[in-house]
Design goal:
With 336 residues, the protein is of the alpha+beta class. The chain has helices at residues 5-19, 32-42, 47-60, 64-68, 72-79, 86-101, 110-115, 121-131, 141-150, 160-173, 179-191, 211-214, 322-331; strands at residues 232-239, 241-242, 245-250, 261-262, 275-282, 287-294, 307-311. The protein binds a DNA duplex (11 and 11 nucleotides) through residues 38-50, 81-87, 90, 117-123, 126, 138-143, 158-160, 187, 190-191, 196-197, 224-225, 227, 230, 255-258, 281-285, 321-323.
Length: 336
DNA sequence: TAGTCGTGGGT
DNA sequence: TACCCAAGACT
């Protein structure tokens, strides 16, 4: 059956009423700040992972002013372990822009929101619809998956052409009224029945209108990303200690683990004699083999300007990359 | 357009 | 084990 926007909205709002999530932390005491923070944390990150970070973060920084007045290191410390640290740096930058240029209040139109660092079209749409009672489309992974199936949109959803088609459909089907409930329903449906694997099409409210289901091709949509073999990288890290102190190196703002403290990297080939351990850590776009080597000297440290001593007892209050933190806490038998 | 940017969970 | 990818944005 042809699916009109009105029928789509009716189905989705019914699903929201019966099965939608209404108890998430950012759905309580809704403000633009709280919605914005949740949306940034939720980028490429599952709800279950975000919740404890969100609760901790809002406790420390209940509003945008307290965040704008903080130190970046405190923000990164609360973010450590969540990944994609550019999000935290942009979050901080955004808070300061809103304080300086928007009188401490989030702008209420899509164009201005999208100029802010870390806020793209989908995040802007979520802020407008969830916290400002405006009609604006979103296009996160859940919505992409639903639309790609219902309308059998060909192509990997990351490709520009496919993305444009999906945005156009999302615009067309996002209702003027009850947009918050509709958008939430789309994400809830995508996170439950319309899951990536083993979707429960038999009980889906859209199944009579879903082209992929009708053609028995649900497993083929959305089309998979073209597979590429990930490069493998090698890096030696130096464990340099003196009494109860450890030598750490601040990562430059851009690049992997930007702004975090890490073990200093060795220059040249790795020392063979005093290797402590070696393990693998995988990222989205490469595999990293980490070698941790003991070194009483500091001769091999690559960038001494950004390095300094820290007390071992302060490690839990320092933002560290997850694999480095895991190694250090195990090595020194610290409580996490 | 294609890479970059983390970590954890599912299969 | 290896691969995919999740409430994306930026370069």
């Amino acid at each position: 059956m042809l699916l009109s926007p009105a029928v789509m909205a009716e189905k989705m709002l019914g699903f929201y009423r019966d099965h939608g999530r209404k108890d998430l932390p950012w759905q309580q005491n809704t403000t633009p700040y709280r919605v914005w923070l949740s949306e940034i944390m939720l980028q490429q990150t599952q709800v279950k992972t975000v919740i404890p970070y969100y609760l901790k973060f809002t406790q420390h920084f209940p509003d945008i002013t307290s965040l704008a007045n903080a130190d970046l290191d405190d923000v990164l410390n609360l973010w450590q372990g969540l990944g994609y640290y550019a999000r935290a740096r942009n979050l901080y930058k955004c808070a300061q822009i809103i304080r300086a240029e928007f009188n401490g209040e989030f702008p209420g139109d899509i164009e201005q929101l999208e100029t802010l660092p870390g806020i793209g079209r989908s995040t802007a749409g979520a802020i407008l619809s969830f916290s400002m009672n405006q009609s604006a489309p979103i296009l996160d992974g859940n919505v992409k998956r639903i639309l790609a199936r219902v309308f059998m949109v060909e192509g990997w959803t990351g490709a520009g052409k496919t993305l444009n088609q999906l945005w156009q459909i999302s615009e067309q089907y996002t209702p003027e009224e009850n947009t918050a409930e509709f958008n939430q329903a789309m994400m809830d449906l995508g996170a439950s029945l319309c899951s990536r694997s083993k979707p429960q099409c038999e009980i889906c409210p859209l199944n009579k209108h879903c082209q992929a289901f009708i053609h028995n091709l649900v497993e083929d949509f959305p089309n998979k990303k073209p597979a590429k073999k990930l490069p493998v990288k090698e890096q030696t890290f130096l464990l340099i200690t003196q009494n109860d102190q450890i030598y750490l190196q601040k990562q430059p703002p851009a690049g992997i683990w930007g702004g975090l403290w890490s073990l200093p990297g060795a220059e040249g080939s790795s020392p063979k004699q005093n290797i402590i351990t070696r393990f693998k850590h995988s990222f989205t776009h490469f595999h990293l083999y980490l070698t941790i080597a003991m070194d009483e000297q500091k001769y091999l440290v690559s960038d001494k300007a950004l390095s300094q001593w820290h007390n071992l007892s302060d490690l839990e209050r320092i933002a560290l990359p997850t694999p480095i933190r895991k190694f250090l806490f195990k090595h020194f038998q610290l409580e996490n």
